Amino acid sequence: MKILIFNTAGIGDFIALVPWIYLLKKQKKCEITLLVSDRSYEYAKTCPYADNVFYLKSNNNHINLFSFHNLKTILNLRNKYDFLINTYPSSRFFSKFLYGLTIRFINENNEACVFSADFKMENYYERYEDLFRKIGVFKESFENILWFKVEAENKIKKTLSKFKYKKIIGMVPSGNTLTKRWDKEKWMDLVRLVGLKDEFLFLVFSDKKNYYYVKEIYEEAKKDNLIFLEDLSQEEWISALKKCDFLISVDSAAMHIASIFKIPSVIISGPSDPRKTVPFFNRDFFKFVYNKVECWPCDYYSCPNRKENNMVCMRGINVENVLREFEKNYENSSNNNKA
């Protein structure tokens, strides 16, 4: 049986899909081809549960189906498949139209069954469960399904070996949109207050797009127990997150990695509705902090509001709110360890 899976989103949505790819391979013993975006390709291409991985180029989080590379990729996908599975919605009308043409082209002279996630379902990641259930794949427990090369793990171990610590807190100040940025000053205050406990080491993460924004937070915070992880591959990035005992993050890919590793997390949700974005697996490990303003939730890349209403969803979240949720998570984790 041959299956083609479309997941042309970011690394977070791909990470959320990984358990289902694993279960699909385990339960159906099929040949799996993945079509992903360039944002997740670096990691997806090493996936041990996929037999073939192709990618489409994107621009500002949208796939450009008219690029030469993308047209060539679609031509290469014209194969005999038993199932075509679309796990991620096209957000624009024109993109939906082009996606429909792509499906028809790939499936021409084929009799493949085409499945799309039910995009009317409230939670994005419950859609995966509903979708894979349709082809007879069901939820199971899993361990160690996020893969690493020895070199990646060794690089992180070497970095951490220079510091003394009892617990590691991962800190992710930026997501894939500008609307998910929390104030730099609030991040610095949070580090100062949490850092009053000497046992914590902070690992600060950033993608390439938000590098200078995150580096500024790191440099202005000026703490000895703060490490800014630079120039990491996606595999090394995930290896480093695996080492964390806790996570404080905006709505980002880190949240989905934490859900796989069962890392207690506080998510500064900002413009995102937690009911839609909370990971499917291990939800009990997550606490969300958000501010229900008049324009909440939204999917804008940058906030369209001006003056005092600009980024009001993020600006309304106080350091005390986040600190309170972290302390609850920390206390619960400590009690569980004692038990």
Q: Helices and strands in order, then pairings?
A:
Layout: E1 2-7, H1 11-28, E2 31-37, H2 38-44, E3 52-56, E4 58-59, E5 62-63, H3 68-76, E6 83-86, H4 93-106, E7 113-116, H5 126-133, H6 150-160, E8 167-172, H7 184-194, E9 200-204, H8 211-221, E10 226-228, H9 234-242, E11 246-250, H10 253-261, E12 265-268, H11 274-277, E13 286-289, H12 312-315, H13 319-338
Parallel strand pairs: 1-2, 1-6, 2-3, 6-7, 8-9, 8-11, 9-10, 11-12, 12-13
Antiparallel strand pairs: 4-5
Helix pairs in contact: 1-10, 6-9, 7-8, 7-13
Low-confidence stretches: none
State mean pLDDT (0 to 100 scale).
Answer: 89
Report the top-level CATH class of the largest domain: Alpha Beta
Largest sheet data: 6 strands, parallel
The number of helices is 13
The helical percent reads: 25-40%
The number of domains is: 2
Distance between the termini: 46 Å
Q: What percent of residues are in strands? A: 15-25%
Architecture overview:
The protein folds into two domains: 2-133, Rossmann fold, CATH 3.40.50.2000; 150-338, 3-Layer(aba) Sandwich (Rossmann fold), CATH 3.40.50. It is 40% helix and 17% strand. It has helices spanning 11-28, 38-44, 68-76, 93-106, 126-133, 150-160, 184-194, 211-221, 234-242, 253-261, 274-277, 312-315, 319-338, and strands spanning 2-7, 31-37, 52-56, 58-59, 62-63, 83-86, 113-116, 167-172, 200-204, 226-228, 246-250, 265-268, 286-289. Helix 7 (184-194) packs across helix 8. It is globular, with a radius of gyration of 21 Å. The termini are far apart.
